[in-house]
Structure formats: C-alpha cells, structure tokens
Amino acid sequence: MNVQRSPFARKLSTFIDLSEPELSVLASLHGRRKTYRAGTGMVHQGQPDQQAYVLAEGWAFSYRLLPGGSRQIVDFQIPGDFLGLRSIMFRSAGQGVEPVTRVQASQVGASNLKDVFERNPRLGSAVLWAASRDDAMVVEHLVGVGRRNAVERTAHLLLELGARLTLVGLGTKAGYDCPLSQYLLADALGLSAVHVNRVLRDLREENLVTFRNGRVDLTNFNGLVALANFDRDYLDHEGPATQKAH
C-alpha cells in the first residue's frame, strides 16, 4: 500500500506537509484492516466501548435513529474519513455508522489514537483539523435542511461530495462515482425519495447535473455553484499546507 497516496494521507496533507516518520505512523494506523459488507453495523448508536475506523475503500454513512424508528443521516463518509471518532472519545457512541458499499476500514482504538497524539503532535493537530472540518460540514447540513429549499440543498450536497472526493483523488469538477440511492439522499436531505427524484429530474432538465447509474456528472459546474450559493470555505481545503504549496 502506498500510504503517501492513500486518501487518508491526501486529506491530512491539506493541513500539514507529512514527513516520512509521520507517513510511517499513518501506515501503522492502517494495520488492523477489516472488510465490511454493505448494511453491516460498524458503529452502533448508544453502545459503549466502540472502535473508530479509518475508511480506506468504499462509502458509509453516519446516522441517528429516533425513538419512533425514523432515521436522519448526519453525513456520508468517503475514503480518507474517520468513522466513529466520537465513539472512542465519549462513553458511548452518539450515532451509528453503516456501510453503503463493501468497505475496507482500519480499526483505531482510543489507546492507539492517544499514542499518536502524544508522540506525534503535528499528526494529532491534523486529525483534530479533520474532525473540526467534519463538524463544520454537519453545521452546513443543518443550515441546508433548515433554510435551503429542496433544489438548493440537493445541489449543495452534490457539490460538497464532489469537493471532498476531489481532495482525495476520487473526483473532479466534471463529476464522480456515487453509490448513494435516492432513499439515502432523502434521509440526509430531510426529503422524501419521491421529492429527491423530482429534484434530480429538474436539475437534469436544467442541464446542471445528471445522476444516474452510480455516476454524478456535473454538466454545468459553475451554474450549479451559483444555484446552491456554494461557498467551499467551510471545507477548508485551502489549509496551511496547501497555501504553502501555492
């Protein structure tokens, strides 16, 4: 495995210029890798003593279940993301994590992470940056559900996913592969699957974006950005390391 080109290293490289010793530490975090099938519970809401994971391949989603059985998807996770990081920091997991596709993920325990923080403070700060960025995305999703109309919030989410995938080498401004169903999008956007279908049709007919057969094609990237009023500053992809490179 080329750790330097891994999605996790690409992501953290936005924040710091990774040294060879730091890349070696990242390689060690990838040691306890397991494969999970789609639909398998990786992190269970409310359970104690959970593991966190670094996602190497595949997609997952984090969610909260309400007492009545309804589900709100909090975010989608892509290669390079931490899964369930809060579950090893708190006494119990505040949300569940489930694979969308077959995934490969490396288990990271609390002691592993503590050791990384103590021995490699720069890496610790980069992981903190990644966690803070994830929090910023959750805030943005809340704003979307609360204040954007259905078309705007759908366009915004598709652009955000594209920006995140581009950061780790899995997408471009032209588009990206996306395994999400309309039902998953609906649970993330606070809409019905029927409404999501109608919105995607409207976006396609406006020649802005096409989402079919597991592929998102951003046919008019600038037009979609204008429609969603998408400002990617909250993703902080121009972090200190990136700015230094420029």
How would you describe this structure to a colleague?
With 246 residues, this protein is an alpha+beta fold. It folds into 2 domains: 3-136, Jelly Rolls; 148-245, Arc Repressor Mutant, subunit A (Orthogonal Bundle), CATH 1.10.10.10. It has 10 helices and 11 strands. The protein has helices at residues 7-12, 20-29, 85-89, 110-119, 121-147, 150-167, 182-189, 193-205, 221-228, 240-245, and strands spanning 33-36, 52-57, 60-65, 71-77, 82-83, 96-99, 103-108, 171-172, 175-177, 210-212, 215-217. The chain has a 4-stranded antiparallel beta sheet. It is globular.
Task: List the keywords.
Arc Repressor Mutant, subunit A; alpha+beta; globular; four-stranded antiparallel sheet; single chain; 45% helix; Jelly Rolls; 246 residues; 11 strands; 2 domains
What is the CATH topology classification name of the largest domain?
Jelly Rolls
Radius of gyration: 18 Å
Percent of residues in β-strands? 15-25%
- How many distinct domains? 2
Taking the sheet with the most strands, its summary is: 4 strands, antiparallel
Low-confidence stretches: none
Derived from helix and strand composition plus strand pairing, the structural class reads alpha+beta
Overall mean pLDDT score? 87
**CATH top-level class of the largest domain:** Mainly Beta
Strand order of the largest sheet: 1-7-2-5
**End-to-end C-alpha gap:** 28 Å
Helical coverage, percent range:
40-55%
Figure out the total of helices: 10
Write down the overall geometry: globular
How many individual β-strands? 11
Q: Could you state the order of secondary-structure elements as H and E?
A: HHEEEEEHEEHHHEEHHEEHH
CATH architecture assignment name of the largest domain: Sandwich
CATH H-level superfamily title of the largest domain: Jelly Rolls
